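Record type: monomer structure entry
Structure origin: computed from sequence
Chain ID: A
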Amino acid sequence: MDSRRLATAEADETDASESADRALMRGLVNFLVAVVLVCSLALGTALFAPQLIDGLGLEERPSPSSDVQPAGERNPNVTDPDDPGNSSYETDVEVVRSATVEDFVHAAVNERRAEHGLEPLVWDGTIASVARAHSEDMDDRDYFRHRNPDEEGPYDRFQDVSNYCPGYGENIAKTWLDRPVERPGGDGTVRHRTAEGLATGLVNQWMNSTSHRQAILEEGDTPGWDRAGVGVYITDDGEVYAGQNFCREW
């Protein structure tokens, strides 16, 4: 082999080696780029997952309601003749019963009162019966206010039931089970699927409204209450009407 052929062979070997090195570098660069893209996508998913989940309605499945202490007497001697009794609606988590929601609301209100140094309200089954009848009437006659279409208010309703509760207060609320509803304060949406979650939503509505909060915490000109009752009515399609009535013996 002459010197020219030897030089050509050595040059070919050098070119092949450099080409292999370049291919290896390109492969390494492509791999690193792929890793960066995957990490970026993962980070983006982590950052935007809550918005995507909320927008698509893919909320995390809540746990069933915890046990709650019964608020009190369910069959008092005096009741509203229009009291519909228990109502319910089944979600994919549990059967939400109005009586259980009432127990949770009563407990949650007393917890809020305790946080402000107030005594717990005693449950009154008659007051709850009057509140429950009003909740059902709001659905039946398609209105949402303290006075019914006959212009009868809380005082009239208590007068109709054995002249009960001379001093009174009333909070009412309306929401839905198993469909997105706006959170109090407009901070996104929530879908109530349990009795406990529904009760929390109802109390949050009241606590985020000045007049309703004053009634619960006896602020402003609100008198000190002796007792209270909660009345919840759940329609067949999951609409919820709720009322909490407060009472004071003068």
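Annotation 1: The mean pLDDT is 83.
Annotation 2: Helices lie at 3-56, 98-115, 125-140, 154-160, 195-207, 210-217.
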